[in-house]
TrEMBL record:
Residues 95-288 form the AB hydrolase-1 domain. It comes from Sphaerimonospora cavernae. It comes from the Bacteria. Keywords: Hydrolase, Membrane, Transmembrane, Transmembrane helix. Residues 155-172 have a biased composition (Basic and acidic residues). It holds the Pfam family Abhydrolase_1. InterPro entries: AB_hydrolase_1, AB_hydrolase_fold, Pept_S33_TAP-like_C. This is Alpha/beta fold hydrolase.
Length: 645
């Protein structure tokens, strides 16, 4: 790093003076915390990188006050990493600093991707305070346990079946309407809150204004004169605030999946999801899906991601709608949403398996303490939580309950974005995904128009986090940082979807395809059949050659090429199936099914089995000839009875 030890000494002296000045200002002048200028560079300390990083990367902690509005607040550690450009190009001396979304999404694992986007610039990634690569970490596994308890609760205790109105079972966020929730999550949320308080954590220090202050402090601590800011999803809010707090240090700003100040995430969640589904042409089928599962919830046997014991999840229509909303955040799942919704509307509950599996990962990977510290101070108090919103997304219900239980004071100025937006002088590029339900391009585009000098680009066929899903998006962002003032042609075609959507009829729906990708051993009957067919083909060809040479004789009336034709049909089945899946199918399709043409390839199994049977049951045939028949019958049962079922 640049003069870390010297910067650390300077920071200690300066921090003492700043604390005294801050105390005077706050006490006698009444300056609000969100308006504070952050003049003192914070210290840094080195540490080993917590995850695999590109070569040339060093990692450390930013030493920052837990609360900048409180004199002598304790010091916390905010993780960061710097990947130095080995051969900087002309004009690329200004680095890119990236902050992950969430709240609470890690930034460090994306360093490699960002290095590929900006190979000639230094890349800086900064974690959010309280996240897994910062200290303290506000993980709150208790809340994850409470959410699992909500999904595994008996029917009579589920809020969608029997609404409750007792104080112990009702969560209330701010002044919004009461929201029913399973009491288990409230108990666990309270347990997490008590534990964090016992550990000395002041949750009021974990909010958007403080996260923005960390970004400004890090630039000064590392010695950069200016840099480019890059935020995604939630982090577009602290990114915009950091640009307003540090105009001289901000060269350009990219806001990916921008969540503007006027947006109310909770109140808009259900309408935004409905609007996104309408773009896919699935409004009626989506409504049918929600109605079906609310009437007859789906039950899944799975493993508890917290305890690793076997449990049964019970998913209502509102739960399934939440899983679909989250699928639109996942680049691998966005293409299959139209066909997935259509299949679920017909009651094919097995198609939920990939969504349920990914849900388990999200429950354990998110730092719930940080997530709720931010949401309960900066978002929930400014939403109304209307009781008539449908579907009742599980995330909205849970967040309302937890924020009601935590009772954190709302931020003085909310997101403080209205003022921040007016103060940003640097060029701004806003990018949005056409199919993003969390940050719809319509609202992001309107917000961009209100920013002086900002440009907006919408990318077709993309959900949340454009840079993760679209090569065109990555190229557009890199080109903007190369020349923020340019208004020339786009670097690519944002109106061209990076991957085709899988619509009803494009796929033969079956949960078995996904099960086979998770457990390849399930493909054994088909693989064994193809191997036996290949051996049969080679043996038949050898026999034909030897017969042509006059070395063998064959009983009259039995075609000499019969084994060859049987083996050829079996090998053709394997080859055509592999080519169809790998060469023609959208990769995401395998999460819910296979290309429809594969069903016709089953006829090749029938042909191979029949021909092998004729050969096996001829007079004086060797016993080994029965093997292709048995493997063919097993493959037929596996193919039509399991794979395509």
């Amino acid at each position: 790093m640049r003069s870390w030890h010297g910067a650390a000494v300077t920071a200690l002296v300066t921090a003492l003076v700043t604390a005294l000045v801050t105390a005077f200002v706050l006490t006698f002048l009444g300056v609000p915390a969100t308006a504070q200028a952050i003049d003192a560079p914070a210290g840094v300390e080195e540490r080993p990188c917590p995850v695999a990083m590109p070569s040339g990367t060093t990692c450390g902690f930013l030493l920052a006050p837990e609360r900048r509005d409180v004199p002598n607040s304790r010091t916390i550690k905010v993780g960061f990493a710097v990947r130095r450009a080995t051969t900087p190009a002309d004009g690329s001396e200004d680095p890119v600093v990236f902050t992950g979304g969430g709240p609470g999404s890690p930034s460090s694992p994306l360093t490699g991707l960002l290095t590929g986007m900006f190979p000639d610039r230094d890349v800086v990634v900064i974690e959010q305070r309280g996240s897994r690569y910062s200290e303290p970490r506000l993980s709150c596994p208790e809340i994850a346990r409470g959410m699992v308890a909500t999904l595994t609760a008996p029917p009579k205790d589920r809020p969608n079946d029997t609404p409750k109105d007792t104080p112990e079972e009702t969560g209330k966020a701010g002044d919004g309407a009461a929201t029913e929730i399973h009491p288990g999550i409230l108990d666990e949320a309270e347990a997490c809150l008590v534990r964090l308080q016992r550990e000395g954590v002041d949750l009021r220090g974990y909010r958007t204004a403080e996260i923005a202050g960390d970004v400004v402090d890090l630039r000064r601590a590392l010695g950069y004169q200016r840099w480019n800011l890059f935020g995604v999803g939630y982090s577009t809010r602290p990114t915009l605030q950091a640009a307003a707090l540090d105009p001289d240090g901000t060269r350009a700003v990219v806001l990916d999946s921008f969540q503007p100040a006027e947006a109310k995430w909770y109140d808009d969640a259900a309408p935004n999801l409905a609007a996104t589904i309408a773009k896919l042409g699935g409004t009626a089928r989506f409504a049918a899906m929600v109605t079906r599962f609310n009437a007859a919830p789906a039950v899944f046997d799975t493993r508890d991601p917290i305890s690793d014991r076997r449990i049964s999840l019970r998913l209502t229509g509102d739960d399934v709608a939440t899983l679909v909303e989250e699928a639109l955040h996942d680049a691998d799942l966005v293409p299959i949403v139209p066909a997935l919704v259509d299949g679920l509307a017909d009651g094919r509950t097995g198609l939920l398996r990939p969504l349920v599996d990914r849900m388990s990962g999200r429950l354990t990977s998110r730092d719930w303490g940080l997530y709720y510290a931010v949401r309960c101070q900066d978002e929930a108090p400014f939403n109304d939580f209307p009781g008539d919103a449908r579907p009742r997304l599980s995330a909205v219900v849970a967040d309302a309950a937890v924020c009601g239980a935590w009772r954190l004071p709302p931020s003085r100025n909310g997101w403080a974005q209205q003022d921040a937006a007016a103060q940003v002088a640097a060029p701004v590029l806003v990018v949005g995904g056409q199919l993003d339900p969390a940050a719809p391009p319509e609202s992001a585009g309107r917000a961009a128009a209100a920013l002086s000098g900002a440009r907006f680009a919408e990318f077709a066929g993309v959900g949340h986090a454009v840079f993760l899903s679209s090569d065109c998006g990555r190229r557009t962002i890199a080109a903007f940082f190369d020349d923020p003032a340019s208004t020339g042609a786009a670097a690519c075609e944002p109106g061209k979807a990076p991957r085709p959507l899988v619509r009803p009829g494009d796929v033969l729906l079956t949960p078995s395809a996904y099960q086979a990708t998770v457990t390849p051993a399930l493909l054994a009957p088909g693989v064994v059949f193809v191997i036996v067919a290949a051996v049969q083909l080679l043996a038949g060809l050898v026999a034909l050659v030897r017969r042509a040479a006059g070395n063998t004789t064959r009983r009259r009336g039995t075609p000499a090429a019969l084994p060859v034709l049987a083996g050829l049909a079996g090998v053709a089945f394997g080859g055509l199936s592999a080519l169809n899946v790998s060469g023609r199918a959208e990769p995401a399709m395998l999460a819910i099914g296979v290309p429809p043409t594969i069903a016709w390839y089953g006829l090749l199994i029938v042909v191979a089995t029949v021909l092998s049977g004729i050969e096996a049951f001829r007079l004086h045939a060797r016993a080994v000839r029965i093997v292709p028949v048995l493997t063919g019958l097993a493959c037929l049962a596996w193919f039509y009875g399991w794979l395509l079922a």
